[in-house]
Amino acid sequence: MRNPIHYITSNPMKRRTVERFIRQHAPDIKIATREVAFYEPQTLDENKVIKYKAGEAWQMFQRPLIVDDAGFYIDEFPTFPGPLAKPTIMSLGWDGMLRLAAPSYRATIYCRLGYVDEDGILHHFRGKTSGVLDIEVPPSLVERRGVYALLRPDESTHTIAEMAGSSDVDYFSPRARALKAFIDYMTNNVEENKK
To answer: What is the average pLDDT value for the chain, to the nearest integer?
Structure first.
């Protein structure tokens, strides 16, 4: 049996999502969670953010681990807010963000996963989902679930938050898409090493 891969997060919702997804889709991959909050560089460069978090985590644990970072882009400003989503929302609020997203209200949510293997090598996996921000969502739900409460993927009639608890969420969630790419990599990598 392989040693567990440590998933580094301070977010209990992310932890539960990752643990459930791996348990359901790759039960041979063992995940152990470490609750650590990292400083996140304030940059529009997704790669720099994940590289920094992975480097910090590797320095602490020196074992295989996963870190992730999520954000979103609005079509009206294609490189914004990206990794700066959290401070932007804190500054503008969701009403301000929706005003920036007008008139198309189109956006793409992403999750970038960084897997550091036993040799300290960083591997990137990215999932994304594009759609329309539903401006009719109650503000209280948006405050709890953020952009997931607002984004209605192109191929769906429901927002990602409305899909919670259904199998659809694993199809549309950017984190699930990044995890699927990670699982595919791990499965192929293990198979290659057996040859």
So the answer is: 93
φ/ψ of residue 32, rounded to 5: -120, 135
The answer to whether residues 141 and 148 touch, using CB atoms and an 8 Å cutoff, is no
Q: Is 140 or 81 the better-scoring residue by pLDDT?
A: 81
CB 129 within 8 A of CB 151: yes
Please answer whether residues 141 and 154 qualify as being in contact, where contact means their C-beta atoms are separated by less than 8 angstroms.
Answer: no
Distance CA 165, CA 126 (A): 22
> What is the architecture of the domain spanning 5-194?
Alpha-Beta Complex (3.90)
What element of type H or E holds 5?
strand 5-9
Q: At what angle do helices 12-25 and 174-194 cross, to 10 degrees?
A: 40
Question: How far is it, in rounded angstroms, from Cα 107 to Cα 8?
Answer: 27
Residue spans per domain, the chain: 5-194
**For the chain, how long is the longest CA-to-CA vector?**
55
User: What are residue 81's DSSP bridge partners?
Assistant: 73
| Distance between CA atoms of residues 135 and 94, nearest Å | 10
Quick one: which of 175, 183, 182, 181 has its CA closest to 68? 175
**What pLDDT, in 10s, does the model give residues 99-131?**
999 999 999 999 999 999 999 999 999 999 999
109: left (phi over 0), alpha (psi -120 to 50) or beta: beta
